[in-house]
């Protein structure tokens, strides 16, 4: 179980449900191949071709959040959700220290 009380399977299911219910129909062909980060707590999401940039933007919207998932959009990868590591948080802490 994570700090949030949800195991990784439940977090993935919630992210996928948000994607199918609120995000998928808003995407366009230009989004193919980009990264999508979903904040499962807030329902907000970010899309970008740069995985680090998209993770940083999602982190800045909700720095205390621990329920972000990332998926790369496209035919080959649709439906493959994974938990976003705390790389964005570590990078931000390093930027503040430097």
Would you give an account of this structure?
It is a single chain. This protein has one domain (8-97). Helix 2 crosses helix 3. It is globular and about 30 Å long. A 4-stranded antiparallel beta sheet has the order 2-1-3-4, sandwiched between helices. The chain has helices at residues 8-23, 51-61, 87-97; strands at residues 35-39, 45-48, 68-72, 82-83. It has 98 residues and is α+β, with helices and mostly antiparallel strands. The protein is built from 3 helices and 4 strands.
Give a quick precis of the structure:
The chain has three helices and four strands.
Which structural class matches the secondary elements? alpha+beta
Strand percentage = 15-25%
Count of discrete domains: 1
Poorly predicted regions: none
Strand line-up in the sheet with most strands: 2-1-3-4
Give the total of beta strands: 4
Radius of gyration: 13 Å
How far do the termini sit from each other? Answer: 33 Å
Bin the helical content.
25-40%
Describe the sheet with the most strands: 4 strands, antiparallel
Mean pLDDT: 79
Number of helices: 3
Q: How would you describe the shape?
A: globular
């Amino acid at each position: 179980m994570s700090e949030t009380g949800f195991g990784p399977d439940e977090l993935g299911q919630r992210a996928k449900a948000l994607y199918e219910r609120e995000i998928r129909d808003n995407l366009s062909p230009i989004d193919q191949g980009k990264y999508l980060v979903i904040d499962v707590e807030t329902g907000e999401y970010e899309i970008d071709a740069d995985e680090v940039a998209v993770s940083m933007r999602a982190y800045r919207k909700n720095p205390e959040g621990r329920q972000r998932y990332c998926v790369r959009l496209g035919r080959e990868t649709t439906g493959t959700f994974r938990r976003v590591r705390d790389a964005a948080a570590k990078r931000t802490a390093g930027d503040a220290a430097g």
